[in-house]
Specification:
It comes from Pelovirga terrestris. This is PilZ domain-containing protein. The structure is a single chain. By secondary structure, the chain is mostly beta strands. Helix content is 9%, strand content 53%. It contains 1 helix and 7 strands. It has a 6-stranded antiparallel beta barrel. It is globular, with a radius of gyration of 13 Å. It starts with a strand and ends with a helix. The N terminus is likely disordered.
Length: 113
């Protein structure tokens, strides 16, 4: 596991299952890294930059974290090449936690460098 500092926020790398969408949570993805300020969402179908979306993050213990965010960057990759790309998907800046902020923060605090 590695950590990465992005604009003053330490992002911890950990693959977590997630669902996302503009209105509903219909698309499946994974987080590549995350902090309480944002995350890299690995997907072959990223939304456009500036899009507001909802994200459900599934923690290893089964808890769910619901968050809203804005797409800061996006890189579309054909689905068959996602495993070969190191930055496919989109960067999400979290704008509001609907639920689970303390769960997510506590989970990130348990991860080592």
């Amino acid at each position: 596991m590695t950590t990465r500092v992005v604009r003053g926020q330490e992002r911890k790398s950990r693959r977590l299952k997630a669902r996302f969408g503009v209105e509903d949570l219909s698309r499946i993805a994974f987080l590549g890294n995350a902090s309480v300020a944002g995350a890299w969402v690995i997907t072959g179908q990223p939304e456009r930059v500036g899009t507001l979306l909802r994200l459900c993050i599934y923690l290893p213990d089964g808890e769910e974290v619901l968050v809203r965010g804005r797409v800061q960057w996006a890189k579309k990759i054909p689905p068959n090449l996602i495993r070969l790309s190191k930055n496919a998907g989109m960067g999400i800046k979290f704008t509001r936690f609907e639920s689970g902020l303390s769960l997510f923060s506590d989970y990130l605090a348990t991860l080592r460098f």
